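Listing S7. Sequence submitted for prediction.
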Amino acid sequence: MKLLIYFLGASLFYTQSTFAQQQNPFNNIDITGKVTNNKGEALANANVTIKGGRGTITNAQGQFLLRKVPSNSILEISFIGYTTQLVQVKGRSNLECVLLAAENTLDRVVIQGYGITSDRLRTGSITRVTSEEISKQPVMNVLQVLQGQTPGTVVTNASGYASGTVKIEVRGRNTINSNFPSDPLIIIDGVPLTILDINGSDSYAGGSQGVIRSGIFSPASGESPLFGINPSDIENIEILKDADATAIYGSRASNGVILITTKRGSPGKTNFDLNVYQGISKITTRYDVLNTQQYVEMRKEALANDGLPLSLSRAPDLVAWDTTRYTDWQKFLFGGTGKVTDVQGTLSGGNPQTSFRIGAGYRYQRDILAVSGGNKRGSMSLNLNHKSANQRLAIAVTAQYNSTSIDIISNPSAALLAPNAPAVYDTRGQLNYDGWAPLSFNYPFASLFRPYLSKSNFLNGSMDLSYEITKGLLIRSNLGYSNIQNEQKNLITIASQNPQFNPLGEAYFGNSFVRNWIIEPQMEYNTFIKESKMQLLFGASLQSNGTSSIFASGTGYTNDVLMSSTNNAPTKFVINNNGDYKYAALFGRINYNLKNKYIVNLNVRRDGSSRFGPGRQYGSFGSIGAAWIFSEANWIKRNLDFLSFGKIRASYGLTGGDQIADYSFLSQWTFPNSLYNGSIPLVATRHTDSLLQWQVNKKFEISFNLGFFNDRFNIEANWYQNRCNNQLVQFPTPSLTGFTDVVSNSPANIQNRGYELLFSGKVLENRSLKWEVKFNLSSNRNKLISYPNFSQSPYVSQYTIGKSLNIVKVLHYTGVSPQDGLYQFDDKNKDGSITVDVSGATNDDRYDLDISPKFYGGFSNTFSYKNFDLSFLFYFKKQIGINAFAVSSAGGTMQNQPKEVYLNHWQKPGDIAQYAKFTTRPSSNNSYINFFFFSDGKYTDASFIRLQNLTLSYSTPEKVNKKIGLQTSKIYVKCQNMLLITRYKGSDSELQVFGGLPLAKIITIGLNCNF
């Protein structure tokens, strides 16, 4: 009996002990597992943590081992770009976890310098534009997509030509030197897009001339290198703005960074995607100018005001030309209809070990002009990703090849021609020089017979090799190469010139070559230290760029047929320019993340540039960024359940600048085209300063982020202050030294301060209806804080201490005098006269007028209802600009005028008018000269709201797709620049060039099919 009791007792004790052991949360077990995505790809470096505690990461195979885990604990498994999963252990020792792509925008992948992050975890200021947003806009240059979608970034078209350059400015102007553009560093798949300014054609006002370095004039004000990049090949674009985001790129990132990542293949069934659209472009905005009757009355009134009789010499347009003739010259120039054709095809697929994507595209866009002209682009892209069987070795190869052809003409400056001017062509179809007599010398249509052609080939490729030495330790090397070749031809044909003077032809040929290679070995280590994750990155960068050009001209051609080569020209001239730039750097990053609640990010970089002399070539730069995700605090979760995300972040750092011409620290010599005592001399070409060194940009930012109702609504507010000192500027030197200036460092200090506000939200979201909203608003204030010995500087006539670098010095226009009908101005210095001293040596009567944009931004809406999708984007900017009528001459000259001038001008003493009396001789009176060249009267409100994009699409039902053998298909309409709301009187408030080619409306209809 005792034995039975003992046995039962032992059994009960064993059962209770076992049950207690199973229920005991302190019973620790070792857990192994694997983390993959829904396509079967292993996710290396995924985080596996005990919720609220310690953790580990996965290896290259996605496997992990977490020791001594309480058996009833919850594991939190996360990976950037995927939705975090919570897995209950329940005593299991082996777990398989499949992560799904994140739907929350805060958790989607964001590319940063040499790595990835997410909006939730980033400590820097990064704005992202996705491929979905890019695809909605039927533009040739992908940079135009950034307008209205990237806070803190001003994007301005240089012209209305599709191939024209696009000026980009990230958080204001950082340099006082007007010879340097504000363009940020652009990196395409890890390869910097570097083009040297070997002929001095770049400037702050005009931006970079892009791929054109021969010195030949381009009607489109240059050619953007991204004109050749196919927007359909781009996965996303990131704009890096603050020190935390940019410092790891060192001196090259002083103006910000634009990262362009092309599309990759993904595992899955091989599929073919075809996208085709056809469209038209049209310019519908015109300025209301005088008809012939009004023009004739204006001219006669002007002659009467000047006391001049009507005669052939003074008014040939009224005596020799038909005063009953009328031509709408704006309609003649811009009344045509352009055409757009775009075809894109991609083949992609693969498995978790190997994936690929092959793309090809063609686009033709005809510019809107009175004669033929068009732009063509052909593109090919390749992406190949492969991993070894053990997943430790990975290779990714990306390449794009694009070929463009541009056939355009310069826009004739004829929008303000007299409405009774003779016909453009004679009865033989030739230019009507004879019909324009006696004003044949003013004939403005010669450019119609002067073709301009430009052909470019752009190759950009990169290869990324990586190998996991052990869990968390990865070595990687990025190899990149790019090559740009451009060929130009500009012909001054005999047919374009007045035959009366027996003209000869001129031909100009230009070739530009850019080659660039970069090697960046890197080592990355990821690990968990108790409850925190540490990421370490160390790398080196070695880059070389060579830019060269050849300019050749031939003159004296006797036949236009011979103008295809300089060999046929009696007189020839050739110039060659070359530039080489070398750059080396060491860089590192430490990222510390405690429980996804406290994050610290440290970047350092040691830069070396060939633009500085020995002992000055290297500079050290860096940044620190920190973020506190306060929504992870328990008291927030308990009391503010509607607040799903809250983060405060700040950053401070230094980036350098070497934006000077190459070889500026070296003496340079040349052989002139003249002899001295019968010999060719060697002549110095510039002063040098061997002590040139880096200028320094100091950047500081504070940001506040909030998410509400499970991140359904998100708000981000950024405030920043950037200061740039030790400026690289041109110092004046006495001309007796042989030169008037020398590039050197100055302690001039420039400040940019501003704010950015972003809002996004899902207003409605149910099975059949979705409505998403995005809004952003930005403002930047620029200021020249200090400049020692400013009165002796070359900029004293341009700038003012304490004011913006974008000021213009102007007289203050006070109206038209009722007595004599002349423009009047404020006598600022009260000396009894109106004076203008452009040298800045004296205090004249001019004021400082800041023409920087006051604020700008965008507002977009996306609606989805069943199979229909509708989206639109408004782009707005508050600014002042040049009056459309102020770009013309005074009313009364042989030039048409806006009706506004005609209806509101002075005619007799006592008239209260906005515009002065008509005159045929405005240069004879300073009133007119001061108004058109030195007055704020020529500036007006040029603010606008533009309907940048409108897209409507219909996705065919799944049943229909199956019947016709398609996976998906979509029919869509895309419209660009459809509506412009503005008080501005000109044809384009953005370009502000009346008579120039404005931005056109584009309407396309297309079909997208996936097989």
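Caption to Listing S7: primary sequence and predicted structure tokens for the chain studied. Residues 748 and 787 are 4 Å apart (CA to CA). The longest helix spans residues 2-23.
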